[in-house]
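so my prof wants the structure for this chain in the tokens format not the other one, which i didnt know existed until like an hour ago. anyway here's the sequence
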Amino acid sequence: MDNDVYVELFRSVRHSDCAERALVLKALDIPHFVDRVEQVFVLMVQVEYQWQAAAEIRSYSEENRDWHPPSIPEPMVKHLAWPGVAIYVLVLLIVGYAAGADFGGYNWYQSGRLNAGLVVSGEWWRAITALTLHADVGHLVSNLGFGALFGYFAGQLLGAGFAWFGVLMAASLANGLNAWVQPDDHLSVGASTAVFAALGMVSAAAWIRRRKFDHRWAYRSAPLLGGVLLLAYTGFSGERTDVGAHLAGFFMGMLAGFAYTRIEQSVDLKTINQRLFGNVSIGLVVLAWLVALG
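here's what i got, hopefully its the right format
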């Protein structure tokens, strides 16, 4: 029999269908190739093996008829993501106006900025109040934009209240950690620590979710790599950039993201009172400012 003669075994409009069956023949060392005839892909097999190949492909199709590849579950989209972003923007604008106008006769910057020595000595509220202060309008606008973007993603993934509570906790702890490693005279203001905490939280949570349901390295690592690249691109530029705060924010945000995935395994997040967590977050900011100005 002529070994150069090939006959058609299977055809499909999708190349992946032929390629999938070609893998079966390749594993059995059956000579074959995939050809394209106009708009159709055709799996060709050497005529000597056509009956064996047909039987193997038929057996493979029957075994996998009811099998579906595991898919990544869709993240639980929370309909309250936008209100959380709106409150974030409103808080920054209110504090920015009050600080710029010395509202109430207070020096908001001196009272609320992160002073490393004072934070280490016990003025914990500065780790929170500093997140709402900004050096100038450009600084404020930048953090409004990136914070709203990353905060929205976090709100969709975790729910607005739970997400912003996690961002506030991660960013406050990051400011405390940064104050502990900096000289006593180190000063810092800005919501960028919270921005990178939100980025770290989303990156870690999405990475863990994909790692469980997909074995492709590039696909499952994309969220984490994307977060690191964004941190490198936006977190190290600028003359007055507090690199330590950005790194600490991203790191603490990642820890919050990992914690979220652990909670997700044992708690139905739909049962979490998002409004409660949101109110607690607002309350902590208000309390910190009351102490700072008191």
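also thought this was worth mentioning. The longest helix spans residues 243-266.
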